[in-house]
Amino acid sequence: MKNHEVIFAALLVFTLQTTMVSQLRIMGVIPNLILVVLLLMVLLLKDHSGLKFALMAGFLQDLFSAKALGTNMLVYLLITLFFYLFKEMYFGENRISVVAGVVIATILYHLIFFMTVIFLRDQYRSIGVVLSTAGLEAVYNSLSALMVLPLMKRWVERESRR
Amino acid sequence: MKSDRGKNSLVIISLILLMIVMGLTFGGRERISRFENFIGKSLIPVQRIFNTMTGLMESIVSPVVNVWDNEKRIDELERENASLREAFVASALEANEYAELEELRGIFEYLPATSAELVTEARVVSKDPGNWYNMFVIDKGHADGVMKNAAVISGKGLLGLVYEVSDDFAKVVAIIDHKNSVGIKISDKTRDYEGVVDGGIDGSLNGSFFDPSAEVFVGDLIITSGKGLYQEGIIIGTVSEVFKDRNELLVTITVEPLADFRKLNRVLVLPAKPGIGEVD
After folding, report:
1. Distance between A94 CA and the closest CA of chain B, angstroms
2. Section B99-111 average pLDDT
3. How close does chain B come to A24, measured CA to CA in Å?
4. Cβ distance A53 to A37 under 8 Å?
5. What's the gap in Å between the CA of B177 and the closest CA on chain A?
C-alpha cells in the first residue's frame, strides 16, 4: 500500500470516527473504527502499512482528543507490533480469527491506555470498570469488523491484482 | 539478523521517544505547534461537512427511532407547561416580583458588561473518538481570542474548559471528564454553601459540599462558585442524589448536567478569568 493511500485511509477513518461513529454511544461506550481498520490492515495486508496507519491515525487522535501527544500513537504502535509478531502463528483472514483479533486488540488497547494514564497520573479507574468498558467495546468493534471485512478483502484483492 | 536488530532498536527508540513526548506535552500546552495547527486547520472543514451530514441524518432518523420517547416528552412538556402557567399567574400576584427577578438575574450575571464582546461563538467540529476522555474540538482558536483555561458554555449551561489552543482551533475538556474539578454552590442565595464536583464515569458529576451541615435537596440548581478556573454563576445542572456521610463530615451529591453533551453544536467561549488565561 502506497504512503499516500495510508495517509488518506487514516484521514478518512479518523474523520468518520470523530464525527459519525462518536455519535453512536450505546450504554456510554462507542466503537473504535480506527482500531478495527488497523487490525484488518495488519491481518490482511502483506506489507507493513498497518504500522504507518497506526502512527498516522494515532497522531490525529492525539492532536484532536488526547491530553498528551503520543498517547494513542504509543497504544496503536504496541498493538500493531503485537499482531505482527503473532499473526502468522495464530491469526488468519477468516471471520473467527478477525473477531478473536478484535477482542484481543480492544482489551489490549484499554489495558495499555490504563497503564498510560497511571504513568501520566491523569485519572484512576478500577480495573473492573476498564474491563467492562473494553468488553462492551469489543462487542461493538467485532460487529463493525464483520461489516468492514468484506469491503477490505475486496479492496485488498483489487490491490494485489494491480 | 543485523537488519532485525536494527528494526528492534528503532521500535524501542520510537517507544521511548513517544513516552518522553507524552510526559512533555501532558497538562495542556499554551499553544499547539504550527505543524499541528496546519494539520488541524486542513482537517476541520472536512469534519464540519461530515458533522453537518451526521446532523442531517440524525434529524431524519431520530423522529422515527424516538417516536415513543417523543410522545412521552410531549406529555411531560404539557404537564410542565401547565404547572409553569399556574406558577406564573401566582407569581404575577406578588408585588415584589420585579425585585425577585432582578435578584435571579444577578445570580446568573457572571460577566462584566464590558467584557461581553470578548465572548467568542464557536462550532463543535469533532467529538472524542474514544472511551477514555471527554473532549471536543471547536473551530475557533487563538486568532479569534480563545485562550487556554477559558470556560465553554452552551445555551443550557457549562460545558468545559479550553485545554489546548492553536491559532485556528481549540481542544476543550468537558466537565464530565475525570479530573476536571469545578467549584460549585447552590443558586439559592439563602443557602450559601460551597463545594466541588468532578466528572464521573457515567456522564454525571459527583462531589461534595465543604459544610457538613449543608442543606441540599434533590432538584437544587447548581452553579459555579467562582473558586478555581471558572467564573462565578454559570449554570451546571441539578442535584439528582444527596448522600449524607454517617459521620456527617461530608454531604455528597450527584449532579446531572443540564447541557446535553451528546448534541453539541454551537458553543460560547467566555474570556478566561483574570490571571488564569494565558498571557502573551
Report:
1. 27
2. 46
3. 10
4. yes
5. 10
Selected residue of B9, B13, B26 to mutate for chain A interface (largest A Cβ count, 10 A): B26
Going from the N-terminus, what domains does chain A have, and what CATH number goes with each?
A: 3-161 (1.10.1760)
Is the pLDDT at B215 greater than 60? The verdict is: yes
Percent of chain B with pLDDT over 70: 79
Band of the pLDDT at B113, cuts 50, 70, 90? Answer: very low
Contacts of A122 (CB under 8 A, 6+ apart): A67, A68, B26, B178, B179
Q: What is the largest CA-CA distance in chain B?
A: 91
Beta strands in B78-217 (DSSP E): 120-127, 135-138, 151-153, 158-165, 170-174, 182-186, 194-199, 205-209
Contact between B36 and A63 using a beta-carbon 8 Å cutoff: yes
Nearest to B202 among A28, A69, A123 (CB): A28
**Confidence at residue A139, expressed as pLDDT on a 0 to 100 scale:** 94
H helices of chain B, in order, are: 2-25, 34-65, 67-92, 97-108
Q: For A63, which of B23, B39, B262 is closest by C-beta distance?
A: B39
φ/ψ (deg, to 5) at B41: -60, -40
CATH number, span B182-257: 2.40.10.350
Contact assessment for residue A83 and residue B28, using Cβ atoms and an 8 Å cutoff: no
Domain ranges within chain B, ordered by starting residue:
182-257
Quote ipTM for the complex.
0.78
Residues 6+ apart with CB under 8 A from B214: B191, B193, B195, B251
Phi-psi region of A28 (alpha: psi -120 to 50; beta: other; left: phi over 0): left
Query: Tell me, what amino acid is at A42?
Result: V
Mean pLDDT confidence for A102-112: 93
pLDDT for B63: 65
- Tell me how many residue pairs between chain A and chain B have CB atoms under 8 A apart: 129
Contact B158, B236 (CB under 8 A): yes
